[in-house]
Amino acid sequence: MTATPDLEAARPGSPELLRSVFRRHAAGVAVITAAGARGPVGFTATSLASVAAEPPLLSFGIGTGASSWPAVSAAEYVGVHVLGERQGELAMTFARSGADRFAPPTRWREGPEGVPVLDGVLAWAVCRVHARVPAGDHRIVIAEVVLGDPTGTGRPLLYHQGGFTGLRD
Q1: 20-53: per-residue pLDDT in tens?
Q2: SS3 string of the chain?
Q3: What is the pLDDT of residue 3?
C-alpha cells in the first residue's frame, strides 16, 4: 500500500514551505570561492550538484543579494570545496554575514587561475564558469571542472534540520 500524503498538513507555496521541506533534506556542504576586486570572496553552499559528465559540469546557487555575488557574477573561474564532517566551524565562518572569511584560522592559498583554494578539505576543484541562470532572487551558476584534488580523507559534512552534522553508522 502506498502512503498517502497528509493533505491537511500541506500549505500553499511559500518561502516558508520551501524551507520546511528542505530542512528534511540532508545536503552536502561546500564552500564556493572566487577572486574578487577587493580580495577573495566565498560562501557556504548546500546547493552543489553534479550536472553532466561530458563535459564535467556542476552547479550551485547564490543569492543576488549575497556579499559574494558581485565577485561571482564577474568571475571566469570559481573554487568548489567539499567539506569534511569536522569542518562545521569553517562552514559557519563562510555562512556568517560580515565575517572576515579568509582570516586565520582559515587556511587557504591562491590556486590556479587566481582562485582561492581552501586547505584540508575533502575535495576541491577549480571550475570555469559557463553560465549564470536567473532563478528568482538567485542565480544558478553552471561551471566546468578543469582541475582539482579529490584525495582528502574523512567523511562529508552534511546540513540537515538547520544545522551541520555528519553521517551516522
Answers
A1: 888 888 899 999 999 999 999 999 999 999 999 9
A2: CCCCCCCCCCCCCCHHHHHHHHHCCCEECEEEEEEECCEEEEEEECCCEEEECCCCEEEEEEECCCCCHHHHHHCCEEEEEECECCCHHHHHHHHCCCCCCCCCCCCEEECHHHCEEECCCCEEEEEEEEEEEEECCEEEEEEEEEEEECCCCCCECEEECCEEECCCC
A3: 58
Residue 15 in grid coordinates? 518561502
Quick check: 123 pLDDT over 80?
Answer: yes
* Domains and their CATH numbers in the chain: 26-150 (2.30.110.10)
Contacting residues for 95 by C-beta, under 8 A, at least 6 apart: 43, 44
User: Could you tell me which of 38, 72, 153 has the C-alpha nearest to residue 80?
Assistant: 72
Q: What is the pLDDT of residue 162?
A: 87
- The C-alpha cell that represents 115 in the structure block: 582562485
What is the pTM assigned to this prediction? Answer: 0.89
- Grid coordinates 518561502 are at which residue? 15
